[in-house]
Design goal:
Elements lengths: L7 E16 L2 E9 L4 E3 L2 E3 L6 H13 L1 E18 L4 E17 L10 E6 H7 L3 H14 L2
Parallel strand pairs: 1-6
Antiparallel strand pairs: 1-2, 1-4, 2-3, 2-7, 5-6
Length: 147
């Protein structure tokens, strides 16, 4: 029986945003939908060299949703582990999330990485979002916005 190499450890840092808008006395947030995996998530991506988490969040939101937002404040961080089989690597990913107010743009102008983008009331988004860490960020967002 062949022995396997121990998995290497990889640390990843990303940033993303919860973009909100007020509509008809309610708060809506933008969620991305990925058909592969049937996943509702928040826009996020890897922090590039010489880029701040805030710059990454604004760039990723624009690329993945087609919309521009203004950062209001940092919501918090979410960390989780996953395994990359092809690299034999255990990865710890930390995502810095920022609350962003919608300024402009069109959700139909998202990039190829995302299948759909939806505006939905925050309570519906909390129910629909796929991952627990994203749900916790949305719950913090609701607390901030409903003060």
């Amino acid at each position: 029986m062949a022995s396997r190499r121990p998995a290497r450890l990889r640390i990843m840092k990303s940033a993303g945003g919860v973009v909100f808008r007020k509509r008809d006395n309610s708060i809506e947030v933008a969620l991305i939908y990925l058909k592969k995996g049937n996943v509702f998530s928040l826009p996020k991506g890897t922090i590039d060299d010489n880029e701040t988490p805030e710059e990454t969040a604004m760039r990723e939101v624009k690329e993945e949703t087609g919309i521009n937002g203004k950062i209001i404040e940092k919501i918090g961080e979410a960390s989780y582990w996953f395994y990359l089989t092809e690299e034999n690597a255990k990865c710890k990913k930390t995502v810095h999330y920022f609350l962003m107010e919608y300024e402009s743009g069109d959700i139909n102008m998202h990039n190829w990485e995302v299948d759909e983008v939806y505006w939905m009331p925050i309570d519906e988004a909390i129910k629909k979002i796929t991952f627990k860490s994203d749900r916790e960020i949305l719950l913090k967002t609701k607390e901030i916005l409903c003060k």
